[in-house]
Inverse folding.
């Protein structure tokens, strides 16, 4: 039914906006950190570290997509955030040669929290319609 708007309770909206705000802060922090790091490493000669800039641009696109897609497609965004969390966890394991500290968990935890909340909000909003279609 294209004209019917799906409504959700106030606490589901609160969870949804908490997850979105957390993701924007998380992505914004890491994008700022990546750009600042790349700028400090290439400040004498900006063309010296082209590969570093490619990694920064790819990471920025990945993080921005993880923060924006749940606003548009909540279900797809939730799965994307879980995939990003797994990707970053594996990436940090590879970069650190398996010697990780507990800070890595804190670094990637917002992706799992935001993804889980996005999936929970989608399910709670659409469960009435899911039960009717069965």
């Amino acid at each position: 039914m294209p004209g019917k708007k799906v409504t959700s309770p106030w606490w589901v909206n609160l969870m949804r906006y908490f997850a979105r705000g957390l993701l924007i802060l998380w992505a914004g922090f890491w994008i700022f950190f990546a750009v600042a790091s790349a700028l400090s490493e290439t400040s004498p000669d900006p063309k010296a570290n082209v590969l570093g800039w490619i990694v920064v641009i790819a990471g920025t696109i990945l993080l921005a997509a993880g923060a924006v897609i749940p606003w548009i497609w909540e279900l797809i965004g939730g799965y994307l955030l879980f995939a990003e969390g797994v990707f970053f966890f594996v990436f940090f394991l590879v970069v650190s040669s398996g010697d990780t500290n507990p800070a890595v968990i804190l670094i990637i935890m917002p992706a799992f929290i935001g993804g889980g909340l996005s999936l929970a909000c989608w399910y709670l909003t659409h469960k009435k319609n899911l039960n009717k279609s069965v």
